[in-house]
Amino acid sequence: MEKAVLTVIGKDKVGIIAKVSNIFAEKNVNILDLSQTIMQDIFTMIVLVDVEKSTIPFAELSDEMTNLGKEMGLNMQLQHEQIFDSMHQI
Amino acid sequence: MVLSSEKIIETVKMIQEEHLDIRTVTMGISLLDCIGADIDATCENVYKKICDKAGNLVSVCEGIEKDLGIPIVNKRVSVTPVSLILGNGTVDDAVKIAETLEKCADTIGVNFIGGFSALVHKGYTDADRTLISSIPKALKATTKVCSSVNVGTTKAGINMDAVAQLGKVIKEAAETSDEGMSCARLVVFANAPEDNPFMAGAFHGVGEPEVVINVGVSGPGVVKCALEKVKGESFNVVAETIKKTAFKVTRMGQLVAQEAAERLNAQFGIVDLSLAPTPAVGDSVARILEEMGLERCGAHGTTAALALLNDAVKKGGVMASSSVGGLSGAFIPVSEDEGMIAAVQAGSLSIEKLEAMTCVCSVGLDMIVVPGKTPASTISAIIADEAAIGVINNKTTAVRIIPAPGKDVGDMVEFGGLLGSGPVMKVNECSSEDFVARGGRIPAPIHSLRN
Is pLDDT above 70 for B1? Predict the structure, then answer.
């Protein structure tokens, strides 16, 4: 399994999950976990995915998510899970 | 999810809002096997080796940036001090090697290449002498080559002949370049580290392996933001907060260094735990010191604040990395730090205060612009003072000073990019001419006799 984390930060609106999960489904990326909260008045969503069987390279998938974020006026970023693990876990 | 949402968002915010980045991934390459029968053969070998080893440095780093979502601001190369491969070459030969290094930088796409260097702390070889006198020409002929000279160590003392010569070299480099720009690529060290990834002082030391990856982290903005949350609390809390932040920042460096070394098939060298500012607002070391309760950087208390910061950064970082080295501490370059520039302009920060600060931080007088009329002997004397601080206190010190031609106190000099812009600072106008003219060597301090 090759885990990655999508973070979505911005203003809540209709269809965020639909659009995000649509792209993931198209690219054969499995969603493992999903949580959304309001943190300091800002909508935040965190999606844990398995990108191992993705049909496109990670860099392209990451660009696609960033672009979707731009379209929707949200800050979206896909990063390998490693970066969070190494910063917060010993 | 194993990690909480707060932790994930904290990391994302550090990168997106607080300027957390990997400041540099620097590949150190040994050039000792590149010495050829004549200078043209040497240059050809150098070009081939650097392009071979570092050819995909930039693309690999860009891949890591994408995967981890953390910016790697600079990709750079450091090489064996060029004086060691110059042999009996002439000044023009030395310039040829510099031009070859520039060509390498262009080919592989790095923004700086360091190692046009000489180590002369105990004395000169003929090649050292040639290389040092070629520095102004070499810097003029290039835009990406960085030069450094080590003039003192705690073991050997200070080579005052070299100190005197470098005062003149710096003046010449300033006068033959636009606004003294060349001098931004020339560092004079005492106790220079052999594995420093940061420019302009990076070179690949003789004790280093064939190819090595050294990584410099950054994150003054992250530390500043962390401190904003503990306003008014005691210094114990301040130190703990900085330590924890430095730990997190360094973990990023360690991860990137390991990945880069593996993907580039090179040995992982060190992570340099440094707080390196940039001219961007929110990325300043001076503002961290001010956050501790000083009205302006340079106010009384600044040295103590910097000492605490420097120490806490090391303590936090050291456990986060398997191998720590380089300069590791806080950098205080004036022109590259928005808060430092403001402090100088407000009249709160002087060269004398900066000199005191260099006693407790990781580098020295860095990116300081002084009037163009400053005599070479005064520049040499400034170098001697800094070297003395380093040699006596068993630490690295450096001088990167720009005597900007035609500029005087109060003027600004624009360097552009990461080098920023520097206000011209006042220097003591009393002469140090006879002091510098003595030459010879200031002996090593008594505590060098440790065996």
Answer: no
CA distance A76 to chain B (A): 10
- Which residue from A5, A58, A78 is facing B8, i.e. has the nearest CB? A5
Query: In which region does residue B86 sit, left (phi positive, over 0), alpha (psi from -120 to 50) or beta (all else)?
Result: alpha
**B254/A86 touch (CB, cutoff 8 Å), yes or no:** yes
Q: Which residue in A has a C-alpha nearest to residue B320's C-alpha?
A: A90
Q: Give the side-chain half-sphere CA count within 13 A for B22.
A: 32
Which of A33, A46, A80 has the CB atom closest to B68's CB atom? A80
Kind of pairing between the strands at B267-272 and B274-275: unpaired
pTM score, whole prediction: 0.92
B159 three-state secondary structure: strand
Per DSSP bridges, beta strands A75-80 and A30-39 are unpaired
CB distance B302 to B390 below 8 Å: no
Residues in chain B with CB shorter than 8 Å from the CB of A35 are 1, 5
ipTM of the complex: 0.86
Q: CA–CA separation, B304 vs B318, rounded Å?
A: 21
How would residue B312 be classed by pLDDT, with cut points 50, 70 and 90? very high
Is CATH 4.10.91.10 the right assignment for the domain spanning B1-451? no
Residue environment code for B264-285, b if the CB has 16+ CB neighbours within 10 A, otherwise e: bebebbbbbbbbbbbbeebbbb
Mean pLDDT of B425-445: 96
The stretch B100-105 carries a mean pLDDT of 97
For an interface test with A, which of B11, B64, B70, B259 has the most A Cβ atoms less than 10 Å from its Cβ? Answer: B11
Three-state DSSP class for B68? helix
Q: Is A38 on the interface with B (CB under 8 A)?
A: no
Domains and CATH numbers, chain A: 3-88 (3.30.70.260)
What are B164-222's pLDDT values in tens digits? 999 999 999 999 998 889 999 999 999 999 999 999 999 999 999 999 999 998 889 99
Q: Which residues of chain A neighbour B2 with C-beta distances below 8 Å?
A: 85, 89
Any idea where the domains of chain B sit in the sequence?
1-451
Q: Is the pLDDT of residue B301 over 80?
A: yes
Neighbour count for residue B417 (Cβ, 10 Å): 9
Residues in chain B closer than 8 A to A56 (CB atoms) = none
CA distance B268 to B253: 11
Interface of B with A (CB under 8 A): 1-3, 5-9, 11-12, 16, 63, 66-70, 248, 251-252, 254-255
